Amino acid sequence: MSNWTQPTLNMLMAATLAIFLAGPEVAVAQTAPTAPIGEQTSVPMPAAAENNPALVTTPPPTDGSALAGGGAAVLPHDLSPVGMFLAADVVVKSVMIALALASVLTWAIFFVKTLELAFAKSRIKRAVRVLTAAKGLSEVETELDRRAGAAAEMIAAAIDELSRSEVLLDQAPAAGVKERVASLLARIEIRAGKRMSAGTGVLASIGSVGPFVGLFGTVWGIMNSFIGISKAQTTNLAIVAPGIAEALLATAIGLVAAIPAVVIYNYFARSVGGYKLILADAADAVERLVSRDLDYRHVRKAQPRRQDGYGHGADASIARIG
């Protein structure tokens, strides 16, 4: 070999020997198993890494509280209506209870007033039929009893006024008696209509105020949700959703209480209006009976006078003839 090739061969032999000796160590390093994340041990940081915090990375949390079932968010509350009610704030819970009681009151008024209106209409219609077919107050007084309701009160008031005005009937015009009877009947009619309308004002109040009460609970619940977000310093759905759901439940209960109240109030307004019309018919029938009795009385008083006048006239003519 020449002198210039000898150094080259020595360098190739040294490189081959180095690769042969380093090969097993590289293979072992590549096939060594990696320790699990939870079992990894801390490795001392070099001085350069300790002085530079940007080089140190923090592993993500693996406690399982935020992820479950393949990464799905787990809500910390039961989002059923009962669960949301139990987990709600004291103010929101009070609003829900008040609205629930208002809804129960609405349906109680509906059932009670429906039965009351049905019986009252049945009684007053029967009384109107009897009053229309009667010829005088005395006849009606025997056919209708106190269970006839407002019609019986009207008849009793008319008979009482006629008895009080007995002395004046022959001395004063009958128009005064009719006016007094009409005044009494109008007051009885107004009282009966007001008595039948009792309770419907509560329905109007629930229908108008219920949604706003539910909205108050919603605003309060959302405010508490934002306070919870600021404390937790996160906008995670698991933190935000329960409070907002509880707040919206208050609005839903408010609508459940208000909508039936408005519908039932309108129904009773129409029904009470029809009942008042029947009362007006009964009052008119009583006035007709009073007017008829006064006319009968006037005729009975006038007949004897007419007969006496006829008798005196005949005697006078006979005397003139004689």
Automatic annotation (TrEMBL):
In alphabetical order, the GO MF annotations are: transmembrane transporter activity
Instruction: Keyword check for Transmembrane, yes or no.
Output: yes
Q: Which residues cross the membrane?
A: 95-119, 201-223, 243-268
- What's the protein name? Biopolymer transport protein ExbB
Function of the protein: Involved in the TonB-dependent energy-dependent transport of various receptor-bound substrates. Protects ExbD from proteolytic degradation and functionally stabilizes TonB.
Chief subcellular location equals membrane
Q: What lineage does UniProt assign to this protein's organism?
A: Bacteria, Pseudomonadati, Pseudomonadota, Alphaproteobacteria, Hyphomicrobiales
Q: Which organism is it from?
A: Sinorhizobium glycinis
Q: How does it assemble?
A: The accessory proteins ExbB and ExbD seem to form a complex with TonB.
Question: Keyword set for this entry?
Answer: Cell inner membrane, Cell membrane, Membrane, Protein transport, Signal, Transmembrane, Transmembrane helix, Transport
Q: What InterPro entries would the database entry show?
A: ExbB/TolQ_transport, MotA_ExbB_proton_chnl, TonB_ExbB_1
Q: Which GO cellular component term is one of those annotated?
A: plasma membrane
